[in-house]
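Holo prediction — KG4.
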Amino acid sequence: MPKYILTIETSCDETAAAVVTEERQVVASVVASQDELHRRFGGVVPEIASRAHVERILPVIDETLRRAGLTLGQIDAVAVANTPGLAGSLLVGLVAAKALCVAIDVPLIAVDHLQAHIYACRLAAGRDVFPCVGLIVSGGHSSLYRCAGPLDFELLGATIDDAAGEAFDKVASMLGLSYPGGPSIQKAAERGNPTAFNFPRSLLKDEDRLDFSFSGLKTAVRYTLVGPGKPDFGSLKLDPTLVSNLAASFQEAVVDCLVGKAMLCLRKTGLDTLCVGGGVAANARLRQRLEEESARAGITLHIAPLALCTDNAAMGAIAAERFQAGCFEPLDLDVYPGVIRKA
Ligand code: KG4
Ligand code: ZN
């Protein structure tokens, strides 16, 4: 009989659950997106996110078990993302996971949400991808990891201000494009000229650092549009060609920084495999540039498939590694909203 792990993910604004086997097969995966709840605010509102998780977590778990054709009694362990993320959101998943562990008397497994984003590449590849450099680009994080093995991650670089996804979302809002901003900017950029505006590529030339910075880029787009002060972006009448050119030039600047630092990280670590995950990894231009640069540098590239880029619980299959290693948690496990640098 296969061993089944129920994985739970509520770190930000997706309520998700999955059943994976010890052999890392995804039996069922359900994601309830909250995009429509946060759209009018142009970003995730933490209090709304955690309340929506409370309403959705049990129906999402029920639906996952139904699709898997399993009952709770057939689950052998419960895994939950307890770091990093929004404290209130993480707590909902953690409390649900603990309650299930007590109810059905199975062990609790902790999942690092960022490591899970990288593990999405391992899941899709169906084979070992370690050791590798892991690039995570999401709404809350832009980070580079040395991943020696599936349980051995070391943070080597991160954003010093905004995450790439955050910049996509905020720039989209300035341009009057809908939330989430990444897909909207990508679409607008298809018709735009990426060299129309020469936006800053912060820290890109600094070969001593593996960090990112996107707040200056965000400000540069703002100043190009309206100048300093507190403008009412909603009242701007923007020419569609200008929007497309701004979107394409902004996207190109973000992609240059992400690709440039990932390649620098590969050179510095001497590793020859790159795994890329997180919501922004769905970006078509980023995927294309990563493929070109990796081919040029002789790097084996794994980018998470689109369905595993944005938040989901299937990538919580990283819990299978812990399950096999016997890494279980006590029931007083807490949430840790910050990033764990070495695990
Ligand atoms: O990983 P994710 O689902 O949530 C976090 O853990 O943050 O990432 C969400 C982010 C959002 O900022 C969204 O705008 C961005 O991923 N995103 C994209 C694309 N699709 C989603 N960014 C650029 N291009 C895309 N196609
Ligand atoms: Zn994420």
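READOUT: The first strand starts at residue 4 and ends at 9.
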